[in-house]
Amino acid sequence: MEKETTVNEKNYYSRLDTFIRKNYPEIKLGAIYSLIRKGFVKVNEKRVKKNNYILEMGDIVKIILDEDKLEELSRPAQPSLKARPVSFDIIYEDKDLLVINKPAKVSVHPGSKEEMATIIEGVMHYSRGEFEPHLVHRLDKLTSGVMVVAKNKQTARELTQLIKSRETKKYYLTLLVGNLNKKSGELVSTVYGKAAQLKYDLKKKFDSFGDIYSLVEIELYTGRKHQIRVQFADLGFPIAGDDNHGDKKRNKLLRKNYGLKRIFLHASKISFDYNNQHYDFSAPLSEDLQIVLDKLEKGTKRN
């Protein structure tokens, strides 16, 4: 028999073995390694024999199983999602779409150690069983901003394909540490071995007591994991608040003097055409990040 699953918002950028374990909890981990190693797993109809193969949105994973070995491969199933209240603002809603302003510090989907309620569980709670929510893209836990939720499987499939074929436009606002000289430009590089591309426009500079920061708007062409963080850090202008790729000393100063409590990254806009209609959605900058900009502005005026 064959088991087939499409990579979606819950698990893209996952390793192949991790993806199989999450989607087929009845299969023992050792058996997953064996199936991959022996060529019983295909991605987009091509056999993949690497456990650490990284999946992308829309990839089709197919597992070829011997019916007689199902009992041998079985193990207890993991707990399912549960509806739990989460506070978020609704930007738009119709019979197919729910667009929300995701708050920071809330994961979009439960992880192996996730105890707090997540966005998908919050939307389940909001739906009260009237629709089955599907996230068509994801934002990191510490990133705020606009997120699109499909209210049925067909819409989820179609929007996922739009994203995979790069027929959507996604914009972010971020604050960079340093004096960005160019007013606009494109970054083309590799992130974790995959091609990555974005365009940026400088919106404003802050020179607060001698420390310079650059506020930029980004149009994301590719959606690699941590792409914006990595590409700007490689350019020499890390995102404010990003300790993993950035300036820890400067981030400590930002926390102390300007109240920055997370990475300064906000999904500001998304646009696409769907069902013969054009959609443009935007989310205002979250209050915590706006406070940081206001304090930087005051410091700039005092210079």
UniProtKB/TrEMBL annotation:
Keywords: Isomerase, RNA-binding, rRNA processing. SUPFAM superfamilies: Alpha-L RNA-binding motif, Pseudouridine synthase. Signal peptide: none annotated. It comes from the Bacteria. Residues 14-78 form the RNA-binding S4 domain. The keyword DNA repair does not apply. One of its GO terms (molecular function) is RNA binding. Its EC number is 5.4.99.-. GO terms for biological process: enzyme-directed rRNA pseudouridine synthesis. InterPro entries: PsdUridine_synth_cat_dom_sf, PsdUridine_synth_RluA-like_CS, PsdUridine_synth_RluC/D, PsdUridine_synth_RsuA/RluA, RluA_PseudoU_synthase, S4_RNA-bd, S4_RNA-bd_sf. The active site is at D140. It catalyses: a uridine in RNA = a pseudouridine in RNA; uridine(955/2504/2580) in 23S rRNA = pseudouridine(955/2504/2580) in 23S rRNA. Belongs to the pseudouridine synthase RluA family. PANTHER family: MITOCHONDRIAL RNA PSEUDOURIDINE SYNTHASE, RIBOSOMAL LARGE SUBUNIT PSEUDOURIDINE SYNTHASE C. Responsible for synthesis of pseudouridine from uracil at positions 955, 2504 and 2580 in 23S ribosomal RNA. This is Pseudouridine synthase. It comes from Petrotoga olearia DSM 13574.
